[in-house]
């Protein structure tokens, strides 16, 4: 059984058989996300980085919205449990995905590749904001995350901008009383 997404027409062609196969594959990917979320408390340092790398590389751009939501939830669970302890390891990983560009062949072409790129950035913003929430207000890593989120805010994607703004608000210090 393949867990691959169903972006291209497979050997089954179209019709009911292909729809059933697509649903089966989506259910398997959903199961993988739910399993990762359940395993989050048992992950060690290497597994934390590997699981988040998997989620960012494959799960956050899943074509099925329910699977994608479960993948983001799994990542949030991992970061909630381990983010503060592994912030120094996770920051470069997250920033690497935010700085990645679309493949050269897809540049200038709208559609699936641009959409996937935005989905990954949107998910990484959520994970980065989750990480920042676990760091102390004066922590330099937290300040770096806020700076990164502000940079990402210039992304032309409205979904990415919404994700950034929802994560920035809780990170801003409360104004002091006069």
Automatic annotation (TrEMBL):
Instruction: Give the GO biological process terms.
Output: cellular response to amino acid starvation; regulation of translation
Q: Any coiled-coil ranges, and where?
A: none
GO cellular component terms, alphabetically, are: cytosol
Q: Which domain of life is it from?
A: Eukaryota
Gene Ontology MF: a single term? protein kinase regulator activity
Keyword terms of this UniProt record: Repeat
Entry protein name? Uncharacterized protein
Source organism per UniProt: Monoraphidium neglectum
């Amino acid at each position: 059984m393949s867990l691959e997404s169903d972006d291209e027409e497979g050997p089954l062609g179209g019709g009911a058989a292909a729809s059933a196969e697509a649903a089966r594959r989506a259910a398997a990917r959903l199961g993988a996300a739910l399993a990762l979320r359940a395993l989050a408390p048992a992950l060690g340092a290497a597994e934390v980085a590997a699981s988040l790398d998997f989620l960012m590389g494959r799960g956050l751009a899943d074509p099925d919205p329910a699977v994608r939501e479960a993948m983001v939830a799994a990542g949030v669970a991992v970061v909630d449990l381990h983010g503060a302890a592994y912030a120094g390891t996770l920051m470069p990983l997250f920033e690497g995905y935010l700085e990645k560009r679309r493949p050269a062949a897809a540049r200038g072409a709208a559609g699936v590749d641009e959409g996937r790129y935005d989905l990954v950035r949107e998910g990484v913003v959520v994970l980065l904001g989750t990480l920042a929430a676990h760091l102390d207000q004066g922590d330099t890593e937290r300040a770096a995350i806020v700076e990164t989120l502000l940079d990402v805010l210039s992304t032309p994607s409205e979904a990415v901008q919404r994700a950034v703004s929802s994560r920035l608000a809780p990170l801003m210090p409360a104004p002091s009383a006069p």
